[in-house]
Design brief:
heterodimer, A: 8 helices, 41% helix, B: alpha+beta, five-stranded mixed beta sheet, 12 helices, 11 strands, 55% helix
């Protein structure tokens, strides 16, 4: 996909650009807020990566200006300010996701992916299906190959989130934030344990596993060949 | 100091009051002076009228020669200290004299016309100017008689004038003294205020110069200045605490981030010394990323502690249901317990509400659980309790690990402190520090006790409501005013 990176730290921008290129994306760079806003409003991008503190015009103001012109291009805010209130102002300005520096590159990729899919997706359907795994949001019924699978409420929400992002990498932090609404990392590998419990329910008795671990990044729910 | 005095509010106010009071005093004394003067004149006039009546009564047919004779006798009678004097002016004489007496117009009608006047004795008696009693002030009553004669009765008012002038001077002096006294009082009060303000200013200068332990002097008067000083001292206390905390963080960061940074640097340096194969590079880089991650975690934990200690985070505080929060966290750790073959025993009483930040509280609880699961052996047991004490909600986590010796329990709550016995287990030594900081932010206390075996860590929260009105289903509680914890 086509990504605009607005970041004043040229080294960081170069790394980002390199990493994103190697991950198969095309990247354009802007080093200050005015340039960034100009590029963003004239060009067409799938997603914007915007640093919060920029020369000329700060990142949130860039996003606000874009949203003011009905430009809905998803934007991910990068910031060295990490507390919850900063996050809230970032999202309130029209950012779609917020990532605190320093971040893992895998985390950034996963979030970009999630953002772009979300903006392209059709409205959320009540029934979702991955392979022979089916989930019904209304009846809260989960079946695989026609067999009913009983899930705890939280497991249901975990599976629902994974299925909404079918085929994408979902990181532990994304799960903590979106399924548990925790914006901190517990030391214990609680998410891994939760995933393995979910896996034992949806994958254990079946030949083809659907819930995969992506090394160094997170998890992916997909029907792989 | 003097220049400063003129600028004080107290002095300016007293100056204003001095002016106002002096004006009031001056006008009061002026009225008194004027009233006395007019009263004296009335009395004089009454006496003059009486004297005239008596004289004229003695001569009802107004035979002038007899009157002249009586007047002459009267004038001689009283001697030197006489008060009244008399004079009869004939028609011829009247045409010859000049001065104040001549200016008095003749009466209009045939009856005796009377005219009062103030003049000098010399004018009234026709004395030569320059003679001694010429200037004595007199009050005269001039009565027009038949045949163009005029009877003049006068009264010496010099004594009265002296008294009046004296009271006038006294009034002036009194006004001046009032003004000066008010000014002096204002000055003294201003000096006092100034002295105390300068005490505060000096203390502030010292503090700004770096002496954070300096405090404002608090007197024994318990007046508004003392009360202000007490509040300011409390504020300084808090600032000093924060500064100390900040300094500790800096020290700790220096201490605890340096060694892993050195390790990272050394690893990379050594790897660069000679050419190595691809897989070795990958290995080293992977390790370095892990090291960096650990550094970031430590750094984040330190920041979280510092922020909690500084009171950041309470701005998005609300009412948090501890029961729900504990349930959610417990659910998150159920799998961990199963994995480690440790039984997690959770008992939660409903309706435990505290005011605070959900994220921080959850983080504190996960830190306690992380510790409990880290130190409990396989087959052990972790107890998680959320209970309503009479004093307020209590969150506690007990494990069956080795526990912490009593002597060390205070120390382990400090940053980076790890027991010798736990050096082999991973961890940064920041977990309990964060719990403690979060507890303080929520006005809760962290206690570490012996769970025999193991450790029981408990957070005692203050009661949000008076014990009686604790509501299990708190719809009414939303109507309660916000109770901001005072930190």
């Amino acid at each position: 996909m086509k990504i605009l990176v607005i970041e004043d730290d040229r080294d960081a921008a170069a790394f980002l650009s390199k990493g994103l290129n190697e991950s198969g994306h095309s990247v354009e760079l802007a080093y200050d807020g005015e340039d960034g806003l100009h590029l963003a409003s004239t060009g067409s991008y799938d997603v914007l990566i915007v640093d919060r503190m920029l020369p000329c015009r700060d990142g949130l103001s860039v996003i606000r200006a874009l949203r003011g012109t009905e430009d809905r291009t998803p934007a991910l805010v990068l910031s060295a300010l990490g507390e919850v209130d900063d996050r809230v102002t970032g999202l309130a300005a029209g950012g779609d996701d917020y990532l605190v520096k320093p971040y893992a590159f895998a985390e950034l990729l996963a979030r970009l992916d999630a953002l772009v899919r979300r903006s392209q997706d059709a409205p959320v359907e009540n029934q979702v299906r991955v392979g022979d795994l089916e989930l019904d949001r209304l009846t809260r019924r989960v079946t695989r190959d026609g067999q009913r699978i009983h899930l705890q409420p939280r497991e249901f929400r975990l599976l629902e989130y994974l299925m909404r992002h079918t085929g994408q990498v979902v990181t532990r932090t994304m799960l903590l934030e979106n399924v548990w609404d925790y914006h901190f990392d517990p030391q214990t590998n609680v998410i891994d344990v939760q995933i393995s419990r979910l896996r034992s329910k949806i994958d254990k008795d079946f030949d083809r596993p659907l819930l995969h671990t992506v090394r160094g990044a997170g998890y992916r729910l997909a029907e792989l060949d | 100091m003097l220049e400063g005095l003129f600028r004080t509010t107290v002095f300016r106010l007293s100056l204003l009051y001095a002016v106002v009071f002096s004006l009031v005093a001056a006008s009061a004394l002026g009225v008194l002076h004027w009233a006395t003067k007019s009263e004296l004149r009335d009395q004089n006039d009454a006496r003059l009228r009486l004297e005239t009546e008596v004289l004229l009564e003695r001569y009802p047919d107004q035979r002038i020669p007899a009157l002249l004779e009586t007047v002459r006798q009267q004038n001689e009678q009283d001697g030197r200290n006489r008060v009244f004097f008399y004079r009869v002016l004939g028609p011829l004489e009247q045409r010859l004299i000049s001065g104040a007496l001549a200016d008095i117009p003749a009466g209009p009608g045939p009856g005796p016309a009377r005219t009062y006047a103030d003049m000098r004795l010399g004018d009234a008696l026709g004395l030569e100017p320059g003679t001694l009693p010429y200037d004595v002030p007199v009050r005269v009553l001039v009565t027009d008689l038949r045949g163009g004669y005029r009877l003049v009765v006068g009264r010496d008012v010099a004594d009265q004038r002296v008294v009046l002038d004296h009271t006038f001077q006294v009034a002036l002096v009194a006004t001046g003294v009032t003004f000066l006294l008010a000014l002096l009082g204002g000055g003294l009060m201003g000096m006092d205020v100034l002295r105390r303000i300068q005490g505060v200013r000096r203390a502030a200068d010292d503090i700004m110069a770096g002496d954070l332990s300096r405090r404002l002097a608090v007197g024994t008067r318990d007046d508004e200045f003392d009360q202000l000083s007490v509040r300011l001292n409390a504020m300084l206390e808090r600032i000093e605490q924060l500064m100390t905390g900040l300094r500790e963080v800096t020290d700790n960061v220096a201490h605890d981030l340096r060694s892993p940074l050195t390790r990272m640097r050394n690893r990379l340096e050594v790897t660069l010394l000679e050419a190595r194969d691809q897989s070795e590079y990958r290995q080293v880089m992977g390790d370095t990323v892990d090291d960096a991650d650990q550094l970031i975690r430590t750094f984040n934990a330190l920041l979280a502690i510092a922020r909690a200690e500084a009171g950041v985070g309470l701005q998005d505080s609300g009412e948090v249901d501890l029961a729900t929060l504990t349930e959610e966290v417990a659910e998150l750790y159920e799998g961990v317990a199963e994995d480690k073959s440790i039984s997690l025993d959770t008992r939660i009483e409903p309706g435990l509400r505290v005011r605070g930040n959900r994220q921080l509280l959850a983080q504190a609880l996960t830190n306690l659980l992380d510790n409990a699961f880290k130190y409990s052996p396989a087959g052990g047991r972790v107890e998680l309790r959320a209970a309503a004490d009479p004093q307020g909600p209590v969150l506690s986590v007990s494990d069956t690990g080795p526990g912490i010796p009593e002597a060390e329990r205070e120390r382990v709550q400090q940053r980076f402190v790890r027991l010798e016995s736990s050096r082999s287990t991973p961890g940064s030594g920041l977990g309990l520090s964060l719990v403690k900081a979060v507890a303080r932010l929520h006005q809760a206390t962290l206690t570490l006790t012996d769970a025999a075996p193991g450790l029981r860590a408990a957070l005692h929260f203050p009661s949000l409501y008076p014990p009686r009105s604790t509501k299990k289903n708190g719809s009414a509680s939303l109507l309660r005013p916000h109770q901001t914890p005072n930190r």
